[in-house]
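Write out this protein's structure.
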Amino acid sequence: MKEQRISLGLVGMLTLLLLVSCLSKSKQIHSYRSIPNQTWVWGDTLLYNGQLSDLLARYQLTIEFRHNDHYPFQNLALWYSISPTNEAAICSDTLNFMLCNEQGQWRGRKWSNLFEGSIPASTFTIPHSGEYTIRLLHIMRNDTLTGLYDLGVRIESVP
């Protein structure tokens, strides 16, 4: 009787562990690009590449950024696209991230005068496995953005 309880408890624990592992996100692509001299000129495209292979998965694209407290705007407007390498985009959109709240306080984690944050951009599926390219362009009204250190992308499969 005691052995039966132990084995039922063990089976229950293993089942719970399996369910939790199936529900967790799995990182597929995670990469940052430094902005040279913290100056991003309009028209300069940031490219990120990586392998995606699960045709049944839904993927979540998250944009990550690092900027200093001298970044001159409250927002960051971006255009992005995701495409199999050398093929048409499977999704693209424009995004407007509010980097500070209504009181003018920067959002995200702070280290000295550097702020880091991330914002989910979109969920998508892929038509076939292979190498994918993510493109980022700023679409701000100023031709040159200063105060940005890095921009990154993270793609995770989601349940």
